[in-house]
Every structure is written in structure tokens, then in C-alpha cells.
């Protein structure tokens, strides 16, 4: 007992020492945050050591949440379901600024220059633009009303070169490009009638093509930002060829875009398929049958593999597509209710959240061996700091 | 089934099943309606939001979905009785998921 007491005292002294000099000198390039969706907390993790460094609480309702990073990779901006926008210091493991900026939010983006954070809101529908340093509100872009008279919900927000933010309006069926070079006087360009119920979107890694998935019809809407005057065009029109859709128990997420080997890999809505599209002309090349309805379809950073997870009730499985052969090469069972996957910066490993087993599982992407398991409370999104330097993330 | 039904009168849901349903509503309905059921891509399912909606209509919406919207039919996973039970719970305010 006495020895343990002494140990405790020493530990307290050691921790007190840490408090004055939080983590010593270290980089943040191999850090990340893991959303713990039910408890309003995040873990700060290290993907080299495969460990959790800290848990930060008090981020509100994170039942749907996403994060973007400051360009110095020190700060995460976490977007919560309840409209909460939280700026988190990864090194000091603490909240440095927080605002509840709407009643219901879906996500956000950081500008090319790193000075602006935009949040996409459901209620009231629209986008708000904040100073990334202080989280002071700079301007608001309310959305146009949908058929129900309320401001349309904003989905699929992404940053584009030129300090622009691009997003879609679910009920209104529009894509908007907001130029925030003057963040207090943003200029909006609207693309109307792009298709029924855009539910999420992606922007290609070069920031050129913005592609919105449509829930209300088989197809996707594409805006070429290099030729925005041409308006939105339809791609993969009628990809289901009229076949009846399966019920959709979870909306796919397009933001985990997968561009690999000259193809784009996209989740089919209401079908147990991954669509393969030629990224030069946006024509469909094929459809790969998979275990369930895809939610995230994500390319390993080198583009050789595409990893897919699935909607309820097929959400205990992750499958891997080999891009060279366009064939499934692996099926994994990381745990119950797989919600997200995140590759390390160069893709040697992937972290997977298994919500109902309260754990994170780390796989080697070459051998598919399990490298580590970490406990986490109802984990959902995993966001590593390499996102700081990718357009559209 | 027999063991689960013991001690309750015929047709009641087992405590285990009730807990599963609460979890299903919070986590899977919550994908669109929000884990706190205050709404997301789908409308809120709070007692206030549902107060003026007839229970049979709500149960039918759960079982059959709403064509033309993102609401899918949950028939493959739920019995009539379970849908009715969920409606009662939603109107009352759903217990915490465990």
C-alpha cells in the first residue's frame, strides 16, 4: 500500500509537471481525432504508436460529426449534430473555442487559406462562415426554401481553390458555389435543377469537379469548376436502369471519395454495388457487386485498393476491392456496426471504428493482419491530420 | 422464446427485445432522425413533434416507409406489435439506449 501511495504521489508530481509543459516538443502529423458519438467526447490518437493520447469531453451532440484541420495540423474543427463548432488543440488536448451556431448541422469545411471555417446547417438551412482563429461569425448564406417553405438543408459542403465553398441543397435540388475571398461579403453562384434530393457530395482531389449524389433519382450531378459557366451536368444517369431500389437504411457518404487508377468509385444508392466510373469522361465502366449497400467507398492513398463499409443491416463487414483487377480481394469482420475507416497518410494501415463493440481496429492494408485494437466509446468518425493538406477534406 | 415470455402476459415484448428496439431507434433511425431524435435529414421524432400525429399512421410509416422520401420500410426487422411499441415510446419520450 505504502509503495503504491508513493507511486501515486510521484505520478501526481509527474502529471503536474506535464500540465506546465503539456506534451513536450512533438509534431502532429501522425495524430488524429476519433469521435465518440454517444458521449460528446473525442479521443486524440497517435497512429504511429497506435495509442490514445487523451480524451476531450464537452463537445455536445456528436451523433453525426466530422472534423477538418488547421493547416499547421495543430487544431481540429469538430462539427457536431447540434450545431456545435468546436476548435480543439491536439497538443494541449483541450477546447480552445466553441460556439453552438445553429440548431442542427451536418458538417463543414476549411478554406484554402486556412482562415475561414464554413458550417453546413440543416436547421435553419444555410451556411455560416467563421474566422478560424477566433470562431467569430463573419457572414451567413441562408439557403432557398424547399417545397415545405423552410430553408433547404445544406449537404455535401467542400472547399475549393480560391477560398470557395461548394455545397448542395437537399430539398431545393441546387448546387451553390460561394466565393468567400471577401468573407464578410461572400458571392454566391447558384446551379438550379441539378436533380432530385442531392444528399452528399465530393470534390475531386484537384478541386476541379464537384459531384453530388442524388437520392431522388439514379444519377449524380457534376459541376466542372474550371468551366462553371457550363452549369451542372448529369453523370451516370439512370445507373440502375429502372430496376427497383432496395430500401436505404443509411445514406451513403461521398466525402470519403475514391479516385484510384483513373477511376472514381462511388456507392450506388439502394443497391449492393460500387459503381466504377472513368474519371476522364465520367462514363460508367462497371459495377462491382458487394456485401451490402455501401456507405463509405475510400481509396487507399496510393489508389491500389478501395475499401468499402456498409449500411444497416450489413454493417459488420468491410470489403476490399483491388483496383488493378476491379475484383473483391478481401472481406473483414472488424466488429459490430462499422461506421468509418481512415487510412494513415501513406496508407500502410487503416483504422476502423466498430461502434457496438466499443473499439477501434487497426489493420495492415498489405496483409490484412490486425495490428492493434483500442477501446473507444461508441466510436464513429476517425480523422487524421493529413487531411489538413488535402483539397476537399 | 418461451423463457423470454415467462412472467409476462402473452404478446408482450421481452425486456431484451425492448432494449434492442430502443437501441435500433436511437442508433439506426438516428442515422437520419438524430441520435437524440431531434431531427437530421429526417424530421424530429420528439414527443412534441409527434403529438398531433395519429399512432396508427406513425406505425404504418415505420413498417412501410414513405415512398418519395428517404424513409425506408422497417418491416423486415419489426413486427406490427414492435412498431406499435416504438410509437408508444416515441410519443412518451424514448428511454436511454444502453
Structure description:
Chain A is mainly beta and 393 residues long. Helix content of chain A is 5%, strand content 47%. Chain A has a domain at 101-250: YVTN repeat-like/Quinoprotein amine dehydrogenase (Methylamine Dehydrogenase, Chain H). Chain A is built from one helix and 32 strands. In chain A, strand 26 and strand 27 (327-332) form a beta hairpin. Chain B is 51% helix and 0% strand. Chain A binds chain B through residues 37-38, 61, 63-64, 81-82, 104, 106, 122-123, 153, 155, 170, 197, 199, 215, 247-251, 312-313, 337, 355-356, and chain B through 27-28, 30-32, 34-36, 38-41, 65, 70, 72-73, 76-77, 97.
CATH class of chain B: Mainly Alpha
The total tally of domains of chain B equals 1
Stated plainly, the CATH topology of the domain at 101-250 in chain A is called: Methylamine Dehydrogenase, Chain H
Give the CATH H-level superfamily of the domain at 101-250 in chain A. YVTN repeat-like/Quinoprotein amine dehydrogenase
Number of strands of chain B: 0
Number of extended strands of chain A? 32
Estimate what percentage of residues of chain A fall within beta strands: over 45%
Instruction: Specify the CATH architecture of the domain at 101-250 in chain A.
Output: 7 Propeller
Which spans of chain B have pLDDT < 50 for at least 5 consecutive residues?
1-10
CATH topology of chain B: Cytochrome Bc1 Complex, Chain D, domain 2
Strand-pairing-aware structural class of chain B: mainly alpha
Give the overall silhouette of chain A: globular
Q: Portion of residues in helices of chain A?
A: under 10%
